[in-house]
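Minutes, structural biology subgroup

Action item carried over from last meeting: produce the structure token record for Uracil-DNA glycosylase (Flagellimonas hymeniacidonis). EB confirmed the sequence was re-checked against the source entry. Recorded below for completeness.
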Amino acid sequence: MNVSIDPSWKFHLQTEFEKPYFKELAQFVKQEYQKFTCYPKGRDIFAAFDHCPFQETKVVIIGQDPYHGPNQANGLCFSVKDGIPHPPSLVNIFKEIKVDTEQPYPKSGNLERWAQQGVLLLNATLTVRAHQAGSHQKKGWEQFTDAVISKVSTEQEGIVFLLWGGFAKKKSVLIDKTKHHILTSGHPSPLSANRGLWFGNQHFSKTNVLLAQIGKKLISW
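Output recorded by EB:
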């Protein structure tokens, strides 16, 4: 796997790319993509970084795995390509935004528009085998993305971290709470949302309040 990633991130993560675990991970991913259908497309594996340069990052949203159905994953957590039906979690995200910010429900589920405003949409695992959720977990991706979160925490200030669900909340140990803001809630998946753990969290308006307080441009959700 040739690591093609935005130069601003390459500068901060170069030491990770050179570690033995990452070289093993790269070999594993290369073999998986040769033998099986995997998502996202190779060129989109690091799309979350390419659309949101390091120095422009203002918000971090943490997902778990890429979508494993055809033509869904585009390298950004919770996001799907233009024209693709919105998966249930994304539907619930958009429903909350509609109520929270009074913006209309969007036609496109492509969240590149968020990334370009400084939202890092980071899955903990960046690749997956088709139709096999979790198939690339515990191969090294989590070590890499934990390093990303730690690097953002160490090098930046005033970042808003949105941690949805038990998996994401565990990442709070990597974040310096004296320098950053952490908002937590249940996961937007129907299982969690239908139990009253997602709707009404107002994370999108709260994020913009926090950004306004430090003079940063608000996110148009």
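Discussion: The chain has one domain: 7-214.
Next step: EB to file the record with the rest of the batch.
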